[in-house]
From TrEMBL:
The gene is galE. It comes from the Bacteria. GO terms for molecular function: UDP-glucose 4-epimerase activity. It holds the Pfam family Epimerase. The keyword Isomerase applies. Residues 3-254 form the NAD-dependent epimerase/dehydratase domain. This is UDP-glucose 4-epimerase. Keywords: Carbohydrate metabolism, Isomerase, NAD. Belongs to the NAD(P)-dependent epimerase/dehydratase family. It is an enzyme of class 5 (isomerase). It catalyses: UDP-alpha-D-glucose = UDP-alpha-D-galactose. Its cofactor is NAD(+).
Length: 334
């Protein structure tokens, strides 16, 4: 069975590609490399360089590789930056999703796993988010992911009585961290883990963006989940769709245990052996105080579990980033 992974050359997408291969499924990748890396795509996996906004390219890829389903990861995922770049965010995340749906419909591809986000909830006024918690996104990024879910649900309704009814689920995940393969690491210039790693490697002091939030220590509280667990859940979702098994329209991939940014900083110092006191910088726009979710539904249906401690999350990410640095140094000397 062949599955197309949009954004499969990115940090999360590349882990999903590996998980698909390990499960005996055949992945195909389409990515414009705006934030992904062709080197993240495993050898032997077909790679199509291009944008999901190119409907003809997406449809041709679906047909040529006899794709059974799509795991739609591609998108612009930076919540804070989306506040300054709303038009770009909506083009990539809303129009991009519409084009993927249109290409799937034309090619008769009926299974879709959508990589959504906890950002659809905004700043929830509950201790634990569940799937039907009210949605109040606080950034264009969160809005775009919610609209993407609406588009997919509407297409499911529209095609329900057709020859090719769309079967779908949306996986809302939280702060994805760590590494499940030394060849793949988070290269985002905005995510907490890579920001800290790059600062430590450069001999600089990591920053905390805001310490005046309504939390116990004043820093954001988030649900940190390991990328390998995220990837595994996508594969099970794909298998359930392909097997025509019952599936919910959306799942939270949460840990039920929040960690503050300051607690993450403490783990960083512990694991790396580099002692530091974080520098406090102003808040970033679009960042809520706290968001933590239960993953009970996903545990029931998608074999979802949090298999890594915070130190293991940090260690796996740190080791992958250092391995990449060593590889780059060796390449420059050759």
């Amino acid at each position: 069975m062949t599955w197309l992974v949009t954004g499969g050359a990115g940090y999360i997408g590349a882990h999903i590609v590996r998980a698909l291969g390990a499960a005996g499924l055949e992945p195909v990748v389409i990515d414009d490399l705006s934030s992904g890396h062709e080197g993240f795509v495993p050898a032997g996996v077909p790679f199509v360089r291009g944008t999901i906004l190119d409907r003809e390219l997406v449809e041709r890829t679906l047909r040529e590789h006899h794709v059974e389903g799509v795991i739609h990861v591609a998108g612009f995922k930076y919540a804070g930056v989306s506040v300054q770049r709303p038009l770009h965010t909506y083009a990539q995340n809303v129009e991009g999703t519409r084009v993927v749906l249109e290409a799937m419909d034309a090619a008769g591809v009926t299974n879709l796993v959508f990589s959504s986000s906890a950002a659809v909830y905004g700043t929830p006024h509950v201790d634990l988010v569940v799937e039907d918690t009210e949605k109040h996104p606080t950034s264009p990024y969160g809005q775009s992911k919610l609209i993407g879910e609406w588009l997919i649900a509407d297409q499911g309704v529209a095609t329900a009585g057709s020859e090719h009814p769309l079967r779908h689920t949306s996986l809302r995940y939280f702060n994805v961290v760590g590494s499940g393969d030394a060849a793949v690491y988070d290269t985002s210039p905005h995510n907490l883990f890579p920001l800290v790693f790059e600062a430590l490697l450069a001999g600089k002091t990591p920053k905390i963006f805001g310490d005046d939030y309504a939390t116990e220590d004043g820093t954001n509280v988030r649900d940190y989940v390991h990328v390998a667990d995220i990837a595994a859940a996508h594969v099970v979702a794909a298998q359930r769709l392909a097997g025509a098994q019952p599936i919910e329209p959306a799942y939270n991939l949460g840990s039920q245990n929040g960690l503050s940014v300051r607690e993450i900083m403490d783990a960083m110092a512990r694991v790396t052996g580099i002692d530091f006191t974080p520098e406090i910088s102003p808040r970033r726009p679009g960042d809520p105080d706290r968001i933590v979710a239960t993953g009970e539904l996903a545990a029931r249906d998608l074999d979802w579990a949090n298999r890594y401690s915070v130190d293991e999350m940090v260690r796996s990410g740190w080791e992958a980033r250092r391995a990449a640095g060593h590889a780059q140094a060796d390449s420059s000397r050759s």
